[in-house]
Amino acid sequence: MQPAPAQARTITADQSDFAFTDALTGLGNMRRFFDKIDRLIEERADDPAPFAIGVLDLDGFKPINDLFGRAAGDEILQQVAMRLRAAMDTHSTVTRIGADEFAFLFPLVFSEEAAREKTRLLIEILSAPYDVGHRTARLSASAGCSLYYSEEETGEVLLNKAETALYQAKRTGRGAVVVYTREMEEAAKRVTHIEQALRRAVAAGEVEPHFQPIVDLETRRTVGFETLARWTDRDLGPVSPGIFIPIAEERGIIGPLSQLVLRKATEAARDWPEDLFLSFNLSPSQLVDHNTGLQILSILEQTGFDPRRLEIEITETGLMNDPASAQRIVEDLRRVGIRVSLDDFGTGQSSLGRLREFHFDKLKIDRAFVASILEDRPSEHIIRAILAMCEGLGMEVVAEGIEAEAQAERLTQFGCAGGQGYLFGRPCNADATLGYLHHTGEQKTLQRASS
């Protein structure tokens, strides 16, 4: 057999390199990353010394990409790649494995602390400003790392562990570095277990709405109810919404879960007196889903619930992900008579300008201010300022988390009209709520008869 011509060998080599290269940045790609890990594991088969890998994700890249444009976003990614490549020693490797995600291999890093320190240095390097034409942009990054200890571990296993650590870093806050631990693995398994059980529960319609009264503080008359999701699993038992709601949000279950709870809640609320409203929370991810408004209207049509009796609650943080999308959804809902409330005011990231842009019907003062209103002067002044602002904007106000009579009296003195909290009632299921309404209705009848 004649040897292949030199030109043919060159083309084959170039094609092979191309298959392992990211076209935008010139770094290696996922295939290159796994190839490097596999080779290193093979080299150390007789003496499996530890080494570290990591995954680095740019924080807030999408908003910058949207603001400056895709071409500028690509330019920033190229600058990121150049900085990371320059930061690698002769033994280390960096690759691009996702849109704004980079993976690195440190063959001579043998401990968690060393991995953490080297990765912190990468994040610091990436924090310097980026030139985009005549403008500059700033980025931060989060990272997760894992260490190779056993020949049973593969590149894919190590990457999965690093991704788990990255997920934890993202939850911790921007610019964080987390190294994978055994405890993290157990927590990840529990989250996956809850996720699978929740998917089954949503499909089977087993998540139920509970209702907490919202009252007129001066008369103590119930004016509406907030809907809260509650779930008791046949194996796990009662699962706190503080646990399953974030999991539903992060794992893409929140849409079906929310639709299930809203359908059940509006079916139950049809039997309430017509002057009572139903309040329902939308998650941040629903505020970027253009189908959210149509889904809500479809459920109201199916259940026959009057849109004018529905209030949608959204948070300040939820508005920040995609303000334009959130505004479209809010406008669609308001167009059919649905009222919109800003929840947890004072604890999020939005500016006061959002109150003007979104035209909220109601504002809910966060429980953190209410809890300290009796002994903390700053909280008292903040609540007074919020009430004065809402009066000027023509917005109703509800104070959340009222647990003591003295808190309710102080808020009434300040001119706060609405209140919600354990003082007036804990969340109850549909049957108990109907019983509560019958009881309060009978009390009103007796009061009118005796007057």
Automatic annotation (TrEMBL):
The protein's name in its UniProt record: EAL domain-containing protein
Domain EAL: 191-441
Species of the source: Nitratireductor aquimarinus
GGDEF domain segment(s): 49-182
Membrane-spanning residues: none
Pfam families for this protein: EAL (PF00563), GGDEF (PF00990)
Highest taxon of source: Bacteria
InterPro entries: Cyclic-di-GMP_PDE-like, EAL_dom, EAL_sf, GGDEF_dom, Nucleotide_cyclase, Rev_trsase/Diguanyl_cyclase
PROSITE patterns, per the entry: EAL, GGDEF
